[in-house]
Amino acid sequence: MTTTRENGSLYTHIENKIATVEFGHPASNSFPSVLLERLANEFDKLSINDEVSIIILKSEGDRAFCAGASFDELVAIDNLIDGKAFFSGFANVINAMRRCSKLIIGRVQGKTVGGGVGLAAACDYVLATEQAAIKLSEFTIGIGPFVIAPAVERKISVSGLAELTLDATSWKNAYWAKEKGLYARVFETQNELDKEVEILSEKLASYNPEALAEMKRALWKGTEHWEELLIERAETSGKLVLSDFTKKALEKFKK
Q: Within 10 Å of residue 4's Cβ, how many Cβ atoms?
């Protein structure tokens, strides 16, 4: 079952030092701004929770992992302040994941687009199914994946980011994402995926939490400037969404 709530849902279950964070939205698990804010706050809380050693990030249902930020909100932007605020949503989540003291395992069961790709890239280790294709389609509406680009580039290199961004109308399959380094392992079924997520998280949760925290810091060394960088990128996207090109491209999506 998936949520029917207009602003989506976010649930966290903690057991045996493992926190499972599950988000959902009726529009293919996309993120309205309020849900992005809740997710960023949740990572900040879990970061200082001594009862948690490992975090699993997953989405509801058995289809799309994440369709990115809310398209309804994107279409409604009509000024720079709102534009910057809108694109800061994923910036704040990625920064919360980056500075979180706990390692984050991503469980990606299906297709993911735009900001959803950034979300997967900001996880420390990602397991996925064969259905977990990815796409960055921002160029088709006159903007670009500027906010999530540092996280994606960190995982799949500049050449991978370029291939994914410039070929904006094509899906890249899960094995492409694995070859590039976004996914660690790919499974045929969701049952296999869930079994491996459980095994991995239980193993990691049994290790020295201080060692896990030090590894987290080591993995993200050199990204401290992202606090400013991602917000600057959000302002860039906020300006582009007001351009004549993008306004025309978005016209057909207005209700």
A: 10
- Token couple for 75: 């279409």
DSSP at 172: B
> CA–CA separation, 101 vs 216, rounded Å?
6
DSSP per-residue letters across 63-77:
S-SB--B-HHHHHH-
Alpha helices in the chain (DSSP H): 33-47, 71-76, 80-99, 115-121, 149-166, 174-180, 190-205, 209-219, 226-240, 244-251
- Which DSSP letter does residue 31 get? B
CA 15: distance to chain centroid?
23
CA atoms of 91 and 84, how far apart (whole Å) = 10
Q: Are strands 18-24 and 9-15 parallel, antiparallel or unpaired?
A: antiparallel
Nearest Cα residue to 164 out of 149, 154, 175: 149
Average pLDDT by stretches of 10, the chain with 255 residues: 81 98 96 97 98 98 96 94 97 98 98 98 98 97 97 98 97 98 98 98 98 98 98 97 94 75
CA angle 225, 133, 255 (to 5 degrees): 85
**Does residue 57 sit in helix, strand or coil?**
strand
Enter the DSSP assignment of 112. Answer: E
Nearest-5° Cα angle at 23, 73 to 120: 85
